[in-house]
Design brief:
341 residues, alpha+beta, 2 domains, five-stranded antiparallel sheet, four-stranded antiparallel sheet, 8 helices
């Protein structure tokens, strides 16, 4: 009998059209507060509906009530109303598990196309009660479970696939819980100001040292890999940490940078027009690989793209600037004018 009732409850929860209608209606009528940096889950933002176990409990209680009436069984009435009261109380406790939580947008690290982006969200629990078994999920991503202790802030990274280069927006976040009994599901929708920069997927590693070009009469006759030491100069922001004279730092002297023959004169230009036989996306992938290799080898490099030229430099900030230009190529309005330095 119990197995049969469980099957009936599952069928009702999966086939009842009004459950699907209510959920679609709640999504449509959700408060349009726009994209914010910080959102608090107030009463109007939270919805609740029974899970399939809640539907099964309702069917079971109805059958128990009919049996108690038919046999005039006082113990049956008592058990039926006791279980019904537990079901009603679970609505309140499930609602309180996510009510008045504050979610704040965090920082998002850039990724390459084809990888998974992780959008960081900070959850503020200002209540004296812990919030247990919270589930957060981005539309199109996998759910993440988290417990938030009382009066603490917890951070969670929400995964989302990044199949294409450009700017990836997190979109709608669903916060839900079925705590404590799993009979009721309470959830809320919100959108935070979360964006991720997606670099082009690096192309295959190739030898490109022969493609070096010169600018403004700068002459370099030394091949890549020459390690002839030329001297020291004052440290400049963006210099590679591998070239810093750390012994001088240990002696509490000013920061100095070692100069070598190859890095002192050679400038690597990564040119869009140097790859005419390839389509646009493949060019961007090869240029992305060249940027990574040039930075790894400690070279000064620049990028030439249609509509924008980035002067030769080196360092993490310069690498990000070049990769950002590749990621947003022909995506932003007026190509690069809005992002030009």
């Amino acid at each position: 009998m119990a197995v049969h009732l469980a099957a009936v409850g599952r069928q009702l929860s999966s086939k009842l059209p009004w459950l699907r209608y209510l959920r679609a209606r709640m999504i449509r009528d959700a408060p349009k507060a726009g994209v914010n940096q910080r959102v608090t889950l107030e009463r109007r933002r939270i919805y609740a509906l029974p899970t399939r176990y809640g539907v099964f409990l309702a069917v079971m209680l109805f059958v128990m009530l009919l049996g108690s009436i038919n046999y005039n069984n006082s113990l049956g009435f008592m058990l039926t109303f006791l279980l019904a009261s537990l079901g009603v109380l679970s609505i309140l406790y499930t609602y309180r598990n996510i009510a008045h939580l504050t979610l704040e947008a965090g920082k998002v690290a850039a990724v390459f196309a084809g990888d998974t982006a992780y959008f960081r969200v900070h959850i503020h629990n200002n209540d004296r009660q812990a919030r247990l078994a919270l589930q957060l999920r981005l539309q199109g991503g996998k759910p993440v479970m988290i417990d938030v202790p009382p009066r603490l802030v917890m951070s969670v990274a929400l995964p989302l696939p990044a199949p294409r280069r450009g700017r990836l927006t997190a979109g709608r976040i669903t916060v839900s819980t079925v705590f404590p009994l799993g009979l009721i599901r309470a959830w809320s929708y919100l959108e935070l100001d979360l964006h991720c920069l997606v670099y082009p997927k690096p192309g295959p590693l190739q030898s490109w040292s022969k493609q070096r070009q010169r600018q403004h009469g700068d002459v370099s006759t030394l091949d890549h890999g020459s390690d002839d030491f030329l001297g020291l100069r004052a440290y400049q922001p963006g210099d590679s940490p591998r070239h810093i004279h750390w012994k001088a730092v240990a002696r509490e002297q000013p920061l100095l940078t070692k100069q070598f023959a190859a890095s002192a004169s050679a400038e690597q230009w990564l040119d869009w027009d140097a790859l005419p036989q390839l389509d646009s996306e493949t060019r961007l992938r090869y240029l992305c690989r060249q940027v990574l290799e040039a930075e790894t080898q400690g070279l000064r490099y620049g990028v030439r793209l249609p509509g924008r030229t980035i002067a030769p430099e080196q360092g993490a900030a310069h690498q990000h600037r070049c990769l950002e230009a590749l990621a947003l190529f022909a995506i932003d309005d007026l190509r690069f004018e809005a992002h030009a330095p």
